[in-house]
Amino acid sequence: FFRDVFVPRGPPNGGDGGAGGSVWLEVDENESSLGCVKQQLRAHAGANGKGKNMHGKAASDLVVRVPRGTLVRSLAVQPDQPTVSGEPSRGAHNAYLDALAQRVRSAEQSQRKDKSSLFVHYPRWEDRNDVQGVRLPAEYSAFLRMLEDTEPLAADLTRHGQRMLVAAGGLGGPGNPHFNLPGDRQPHYALRGLPGVTRQIELELKTIADVGLVGMPNAGKSSFLRAVSNAHPRVAPYPFTTLNPYVGSVDYADARQVTVADIPGLIPGAHRNVGLGHEFLRHVERSRVLVYIVDVTRPNPWADLLALQQELELYRPGLAARPSL
User: Fold this and answer.
1) pTM, two decimal places
2) Which of 51, 67, 174, 186 could serve as 31's disulfide partner, Cβ 3.0–4.6 Å?
3) Average pLDDT in the 74-93 region?
């Protein structure tokens, strides 16, 4: 409340709480893997409001950069997921949101319901404040409806600079000036802030490249990529040296650039997910041109080439028919 030398009982002037930060995913063409993404992403909370109508500072958004070709999917929240550092689990957090939304929904529908738990009360005024007839701000109710109607995420991030909102930040609580009504000029209460959205998501990278190198394990794909591009994948004289795709670029004198992806080695039965078949084959889908790397020192290199083409066709019809070399 406003207090001054000659104003012993001034009007309410408590500031609003600051909004929490949101979590965004942004495509960055300079990123080549999802190794930069932490397992838990959390934006900062907004600051509390203060007296003299000083509103709390809104928190900055958390922007996570991901490579082109990232698929985003929502996962079901596991209620019994273990917690870290004493914090409530995601399931408990969403249960709290559901209970909070239910309280507000019930309170709006019936004046007999208790709204007191939604408010922050001035010390020793919990029993004296009558908040049953207080109308909630429209923005507050709309935010609660947004929390209830949160839809599953499903997106394919393919353009540089493309952004996607993963989790909206929380809403700061309105201060007591919002409740300065004709019937109550001295409201000793304010609304609590609402927490932001909590999600479990899965990120999958399907490498986007102009050229995809396809071959049996230890056929020389990584050596070829090192020779023609600026990439430096690991090279060793044993199979499955490459377990994740590497992307290199071939620069031409006229400023043109071609990206080449080293796809981990395929084996017979890869289309049935033998070994890590699906983990490897999914990266081939985004390549415009396929280059088969065949070891001619093997007993039957033509059979190896036919086996590779067959695995691609069985995994996804028409994949082997793409332009190839």
Assistant:
1) 0.62
2) 67
3) 50
